[in-house]
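Appendix B, record 7
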Amino acid sequence: VDFSSPNIAKEMHVGHLRSTIIGDSISRLFEFCGHEVHRINHVGDWGTQFGMLIMYLRESFPDFLSNPPAISDLVEFYKAAKKRFDEDQAFKDAARLEVVRLQALEEDNIKAWTRLCDISRAEFEQIYSRLNIRLEERGESFYNPFIPGTLELLEKAGLTQMSDGAEIIVSKEEKAVAALDAKDFVKLLSNHFVQTKRGSEVPEFNPNLIAALKKASILTGDEGAEVLKLGKAESKPLAKFDVQKDIDKLAKVMEPLYVKVKEVEPLLLEVFEAAGILSADKKTIKVPRFGFPLIVRKSDGGYTYDTTDMAAMWHRFIKDDFARVVYVTDVGQYEHFRMCAQSATEMGWIGNGKTWDHAGFGLVSGEDGKKLKSRSGETVKLRELLDEAVDRCAATLKEREQGDQKQGHTEEEIAVLSKKIGYGAVKYFDLKQSRTTDYGFSYDKMLDTNGNTAVYMLYSYARIRSIQRKAAVPAEELATATVSLETEKEKALALCALRFQSVIIKTAEDLFLNHITDFVYELTGKLSEFYGECRVIGAPQQNSRLLLLQVVAETMKTCLSLLGIEVADRL
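Structure tokens (predicted):
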């Protein structure tokens, strides 16, 4: 399970919170099901930004090798380095040389890089320890040594091709020429007819495309002043064609040249033949699966995120021999991982029982739907967000100790309980959402003592334990008791608890953790109805009902544990 994955020298933000909480819960779920689980933290610990950071480290602390500096705030250090990089050309040039030295594994640069990574790790660990998260770090640097070999495998398999000096992967699928639609043609246009060169905003058009458009009167006007028709009431100068905005419109307006025609426009077929994507009988064509390629080597010879992720897929499916790999990132990265997985499938790395999933998640905003901010108006820090939840819980518990509902908790007990409730509330509030949707962060809602919240679940669990303590029935006596479900409420509670297995199986399949929160909420609802009609202590059915409550309590505890939430016997 690939989750959390913050960037070195940058603050962990709310997006990392979602990835961390969801990934941890998925890992717990698989571990509970008996699988061997690797919790991979694919941190951003390599790249050009380190040249800037190392150069600034040399400037600020010339003796950093013999006297390692105590950089207390690496985020501020990053901002200061970025400011120098943006404003000083000489600094920028020097920083680029530091990147070259780092990539050449020069000793001083590796020591500087290691120091910066260690500072970040200590910051990340503060978050992970608060949330009780276990992770195995395998950052970008871990996969670097495997990149050349992975590229060689891709090249030998014929998956890569050259484009404007860069090495790319364009995954293709075979389709009937007669079945081509506008979506297919957008991809064909992007790959074979309209090219945007590096450093130029004006695209280059294949001469055959220009000729075909003129032939169909889609393009009119003299050379250099052509006007392109993009719809019934829309035209624009060819020189102002915007690939991102206009290519869908162009594919649509060109439909008479390739949709429901006896023969696709010959000028277009000529390009397809030259590219080797058209069958000999001209009945099938290889269409790109995606609107853009994977770039595995830049024109300057450098590698990209695409390269690293392909190397990671090779390592995970082939070297580690993982049966299933789950990527936990925001939904916006789904297409990227789908492209990588498609290439891995074509290589034979995925398949034959080996699968991949993308557990994508939506964005977190403030209650107003805007970016989450602190009281001072700054972007909220993840550590402060968690501390605020704990502080609010502590204040509530202390207030209760001064009133009629006091439980006799000590200051130390309140400190422990407030962390269990506070962190649990943050986790539960996130996990109860359908993970692919956005949601608004609200302390008031997540710390509500009623409804579908961790606070309510924890109190419901503690109430069962309180009843068991008051009944004071020895374990030996309960061990010989039998369960007798006499009332409708008892039966409904027992039947609900028995749904546990099906909920776990469903969640392990589709990775939507709100199945578990919905189940626990339903279970506590049945429990509340049970209390309303069924007396426990002193009733003739006391021991039977105590056993039923024990089943419910263990089921609740297991579910909350899968969500990374600790229970407490006394609240």
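Remarks on this record: The mean pLDDT is 93. The chain is about 50% helix and 10% strand.
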